[in-house]
């Protein structure tokens, strides 16, 4: 059974990544002892569970709390606007969470949920909890993010993951022009304005960060998405994977080139988005290194988040 009220998911969800059949995963409410399992996946009619993916210590002494989600539907996309059914407490941290929840990724993707789609920055010495709540069919699903457990600490962009030969790529907004960055902090550009029905060009450059020295770029180490080592000569070898999604907004967003494999160490990737209704939108892009069965993405490393704020006019 899906929990009735106050389900708390956490970093335990990292274990639900699957090969063939989904493996069982449990998250317990600390009071009620309610359990839920990945076997509750259905095409339609299930809730989306917010998840706390861990925290990151930043060089400036502050911390980022990482939040993701797990939509228990195989086909149904859920829309939960900001407000009484989708909010963060304390209210000063509210507003960056998604309102558009994609279903379980289909094959050949080997992960089963969406990791760290946004972060909340808290000051040094923060001892409170940041709680994200989603309300669906009168039931609450909430998760607390906090700094109370060292086991929840994650590495960030400034560190090279030797175990998977991975690092978050350096991403720069080219069109619309904007900042560059690496890691889950998230770089943002906008607002930009576009009419309903007119495609908005989205171009980013993706490449190795400056700290990725030549001795790190060992082509015999990492594997591409099909399991071949990047140094093999039996076919093209993917270096990066770029995926766009609607993060917030009132209408539908259609992407052209919304999911792209990048086979060069550095490349500009161009996509476009078309909007069905006027309003404010937030688009999310994740540029990911090594999202394979034994790769980094499913273990909370290594990718870069980016966001584009769009005002769509009639």
Provide a quick synopsis of the model.
The chain has 314 residues and is an all-beta fold. The protein has no helices and 18 strands. The chain folds into two domains: 142 residues, no CATH class; 144 residues, Immunoglobulin-like, CATH 2.60.40.
Q: Provide the structure class.
A: mainly beta
Strand order of the largest sheet: 10-9-12-16-14
- What name does the CATH topology of the largest domain carry? Immunoglobulin-like
Instruction: Give start-end ranges of low-pLDDT stretches.
Output: 1-35, 218-234
Q: Any idea what the CATH architecture of the largest domain is? A: Sandwich
Distance linking N and C termini:
44 Å
Residue-averaged pLDDT, rounded? 79
Number-wise, the strands total 18
Strand content: 35-45%
- Shape, per Cα inertia axes: globular
Report what the structure shows.
This protein is an all-beta fold. The chain has 2 domains: 11-152, no CATH class; 170-313, Uncharacterised protein PF12988, DUF3872 (Immunoglobulin-like), CATH 2.60.40. Helix content is 0%, strand content 39%. The protein contains no helices and 18 strands. The protein has strands at residues 48-57, 63-71, 78-79, 86-89, 100-101, 114-122, 130-136, 139-145, 170-175, 180-181, 187-195, 200-207, 240-248, 253-256, 259-262, 266-275, 279-289, 303-313. It has a 5-stranded antiparallel beta sheet with strand order 10-9-12-16-14, with no helix packed on it. A hairpin with a 5-residue loop joins strand 1 (48-57) and strand 2. It starts with 47 loop residues before the first strand and ends with a strand. Residues 1-35 and 218-234 have low confidence and may be disordered.
